Amino acid sequence: MSWLWGGRKPPLPENFSEFVPPSDGGAAAGGGSSGGGGGDDRKKSGAMEAYRFDSSSLERAAEAAKSLEKSSNAKECLELSRQQEITKQNEYLKQSKELEVQARQMEMQVEKARSEERMKQIREQANLDKQKVQYQDQLARSRQVLLFLSYNWELVVCTVMMGGRQE
Question: What 8-state DSSP symbol labels residue 8?
Fold first, then answer.
């Protein structure tokens, strides 16, 4: 039973003839059928090949289970294997939770980067709007100065013209 836990391996059978199918046994028994029959036998053996099953490993597992049942340490062995399985499941669960946490952190970082970029765009837009308002104010003041100067110029021209006529 030590082979079950990786110790010595069970002996291999010396005679493999029971595992090998007979070759063209049907054609010889059929009385020497001509060419077409041989192809059918090959197709049948090929189809049977797909369903061939090596039961030796299953038999070894059954023998190991029987010897384990008879063993005085069977319950401890079963409990140990159960605990090992639980430990593996807990490790996988822990790893899964860690991956979920990492995914959430990545999502939060992406969202933070997006919000920072949006804030930067808002600040830039506010700055541009401020500059636009200042420029429009400057233009409006320039227009008022020009209007004032042109009005004053008209007054001067009118005054000069009026002044010249009255004299």
Answer: S
Q: In whole angstroms, what is the distance from residue 38 CA to residue 120 CA? A: 82
pLDDT in tens, 109-166: 999 999 999 999 999 999 999 999 999 999 999 988 888 888 777 777 777 777 755 4
Using the structure block, give the residue that is written with the tokens 């049942």.
Answer: 69
Provide the whole-model pTM: 0.40
How far is residue 151's CA from residue 88's CA, in Å, rounded to a whole number? 94
**Are the C-beta atoms of residues 24 and 41 closer than 8 Å to each other?**
yes
φ and ψ at residue 34, rounded to 5 degrees: -85, 170
Q: Rounded to whole angstroms, how far apart are CA atoms 5 and 141?
A: 95
